[in-house]
Amino acid sequence: MISVEQIKQEVISALEDIKAFDIVSLDVRKISSIADFMVIASASSSRQAKALAENVQEKLKQSKIDIVGIEGETEGDWVLVDFGDIIVHIMTPTTRAYYNLEELWSV
User: Fold this and answer.
1) Mean of the pLDDT values across residues 9-35?
2) How confident is the model at residue 107 (pLDDT cuts 50, 70, 90)?
3) How far is CA 35 from CA 16, 40, 76, in A?
4) Domain range annotation of the chain
5) Which residues neighbour 98 within 8 Å (Cβ) at sequence distance 6 or greater?
6) Are 42 and 96 in contact (CB under 8 A)?
7) How confident is the model at residue 104 (pLDDT cuts 50, 70, 90)?
8) If I label 85, which of 2, 28, 49, 71 is the partner at 20 to 30 A Cα–Cα?
């Protein structure tokens, strides 16, 4: 069985493969029951955000990790990929600055 830490590392690796930047991993176990970690990454465009989300999905499918849900693929400014224990947010810099998830979810 693959650990949450290993899944998180696979997510980060998949994001790095397609040049995501400002990748941050937040441990939210103490403040939320919806997930253990949130991984937030920036994409230079909505097109790149979609490509990053697709790459993360493909890499984790190869490791037999189930995807709970995906949101925002149509627009691409903010794509959310939910793996249950890990929620991945891929955003354009403008969207990321506006929503400031790091501050919202920091302990």
Assistant:
1) 95
2) low
3) 22, 13, 22
4) 4-105
5) none
6) yes
7) confident
8) 49
Q: Which two structure tokens, joined as six digits, stand for 6?
A: 């290993």
Residue recorded with tokens 């697709």: 54
CB-based contact 85:4 (threshold 8 Å): yes
Architecture (CATH level 2) of domain 4-105: 2-Layer Sandwich (3.30)
Q: Are 73 and 22 in contact (CB under 8 A)?
A: no
Alpha-carbon distance values, 27 to 4, 33, 55, 93 (Å): 11, 11, 23, 22
- 8 A C-beta contact, residue 73 and residue 79: yes
On whether the CB atoms of residues 37 and 88 are closer than 8 A, the answer is no
Residue 80: predicted pLDDT: 97
